[in-house]
Amino acid sequence: MTITREDCAARDHCDRLAMFRDRFVLPPGVIYLDGNSLGPLPRATPARLLEVAEIEWGTALIRAWNRHDWIGLPRRVGEKIARLIGAPPGSTIVADSTSVNVFKALAAALALRPERRVMVSEAGNFPTDLYVAQGLAALLGRGHTLRRVEDDDIAAAIDADVAAVLLTHVDYRSGRMLDMAAITRAAHAAGAVVIWDLAHSAGAVPLDLAKCDVDFAIGCGYKYLNGGPGAPAFLHVAPRLLDAVAMPLTGWLGHADPFAFDGDFRAAPGIARGQVGTPAVLSLAALEVGVDLALEAPEDAVRAKSLALTGLFAGLVAQECGDFGFECITPAEEVRRGSQVSFRHPEGYAIMQALIARGVIGDFRAPDVLRFGCTPLTLRHADVWDAVAILREVMQMHAYRAPEFRVRHAVT
Ligand SMILES: *Cc1c(COP(=O)(O)O)cnc(C)c1O
User: Which of 99, 197, 348, 353 has the smallest C-beta neighbourhood within 10 Å, fewest atoms?
Assistant: First the structure.
């Protein structure tokens, strides 16, 4: 059956999440399909940033660390993120970047299995995860190797030599979602420690880290959590491991008593040891607004709408752009799908530039992937219709052939 724009508008009419759209600043004339890379600005964020700058910083000065509990921000926002990802209280903290947290979690995981020398990851994992694993192996200098395997071979690759398994739950290129419970079980059966990168999961898909018995997790603050450019990331450590975990970066804020200014490092009890140095207060304040918004949205409604939007996007591209050579690489099966739809096309870069010039903002991932993030809090079904109609026009008119769309920018 042909899907019409009226069908899409009708779905928007009974959308339980429709009221969330107004809670964000969205420029007119833009259909934003990149909330998986940089979440849009929550309407409440600028006022909060102004408050932190002018009132907290401007008038309380150094006293704000206590008076406005700046010192408690990493824990406080971490507790809120824990609720979003199904993690127990006291297990999650906001600190550093995702890349740095990959390093911290992976090093801590390897230290829990000192007699083993293999790290397992997925061949197409996000490069920072792979690079950090390679750099850590070189730094340790004890012969650790990185075993990179295809999705379907992950469980089979986890044998008695494997110390740690480092995986991204939702793939950044294709949007395919791995079975967190099954892989974690397989890893534990083989005696390995698991680290899940939730960069494309937190705030987008239901997560239950406690139920899956996950050892470590890390995730991004500026994607679906809408914390703003360069927002700090989060680190989760299972409570059963916390007291045994040795963090590789032992800074003063991970110390049991930072203001004792003791000359010897003693790790703080619990997840506080996941901190290294002084938190980025302004960024954390912005992140808290985004996380509060995410917590307001019922998880089942978010997942249902996300699947509806991604399914609609893929269906409409097949219906409207079937002749133009797009290959959908996002799994059709719902349990294997995150919150984005991706297509391969040899002209992918130029097509995405032509779309962006028309206000349809997705992104491009080398070598040939067009990526469309579907953020349920802001995107309407009718927007998906309009985006695909513009894609069709770009293809029909060969608009992507214009020379200006072939210029490669630093950020794609
Ligand atoms: C976006 C992303 C990151 C980002 O890491 P940064 O340190 O914030 O640059 C890491 N891992 C994955 C899987 C990502 O998608």
Answer: 99
